[in-house]
Amino acid sequence: MNEKSQQTPWYRQAAAVIPRHLYLKSIGTTLFISLFFGAYFYLLKVPAYPATVMPITLLDRMIGFQPLALPLYISLWVYVSLPPALLATRRELYDYGKVMAGTCLAGLIVFYFWPTVVPAADIDWAQYPDVEFLKSIDAAGNAFPSLHVATAVFSGIWLHHLLRRFGAPLWILIFNSAWCAGIVYSTLATRQHVAVDVLAGLALGVAAACLSLRHRVAAGVNDKVHDSSIPSKPTT
Questions:
Q1: How far is CA 205 from the centre of its chain?
Q2: Is 56 within a domain?
Q3: What is the pLDDT of residue 219?
Q4: How far apart (Å, rounded) are the C-alpha atoms in residues 171 and 155?
Q5: CB atoms < 10 A from the CB of 230, how many?
Q6: Do the Cβ atoms of 219 and 169 come closer than 8 Å?
Q7: Distance between CA atoms of 180 and 174, rounded to whole angstroms?
Q8: Closest C-alpha to 40, from 110, 143, 124, 142
């Protein structure tokens, strides 16, 4: 009896793609983050113009300080590494890297011409040593737009696209959305940003992701991937 072969499970497709161009992915991601932080901290420490204090809004007052949100905030650096890890070809990696670089560059240009800072919070940071350590490294400057939010949203939309391409189940897509939303929330809950910064970061991340994915669709990139290196179940 001949039966139609079943599609390779999504997690096996993902596992087969991750090792491809592993050195390029690992070295490229590390180098990109290092160069970004070099430029980011330079503008943070040596602003070209006087800094503007960002306004507090009703949303900021509604979301209280939550030190337990710190792990979510830090998890961004794992999260942004996932989309490039799931790309299969050098061309995809280069295209993705260019768009992510353009997104970060847009934020850095704003930081240069319009330095901004988050208003000082009435909190004794000594009571929260983990958050105090974060703030000793990443000061309150370079606030608008929040590149923490922009890169999280950009990565989240791309992850959604790639997971759907692998045929991932709904619960994985929901988990991805929840993780992304948690990172966005953490920027407010740790008092690293205010709502205005977050909204600008959301706009930047969504615009960059949608424009880059629209190009992929126009180029004829299929929504599903069937990895030829993974054999389908044999027919009988």
A1: 8
A2: yes
A3: 55
A4: 18
A5: 13
A6: no
A7: 10
A8: 142
Give the chain's domain count. Answer: 1
Answer whether residue 229 is part of any domain: no
- Of residues 164, 166, 167, 165, the one with CA closest to residue 177: 164
More confident residue, 227 or 162: 162
The pTM assigned to this predicted structure is 0.87
Can you spell out the DSSP letters for 186-212? HHHHTTS--HHHHHHHHHHHHHHHHHH
Give dist(CA 107, CA 115) in Å, integer. 11
SS3 55: coil
How does residue 166 score in pLDDT terms, banded at 50, 70 and 90?
very high
Distance CA 17, CA 227 (A): 8
Domain hosting 48: range is 10-218
Cα–Cα nearest to 10, from 126, 147, 169:
169
Tell me what the mean pLDDT of segment 217-228 comes to. 48
Tens digits of residue pLDDT in 5-50: 347 899 899 999 999 998 889 898 889 889 999 999 999 888 889 9
Give the whole-angstrom CA distance, residue 70 versus residue 51: 26
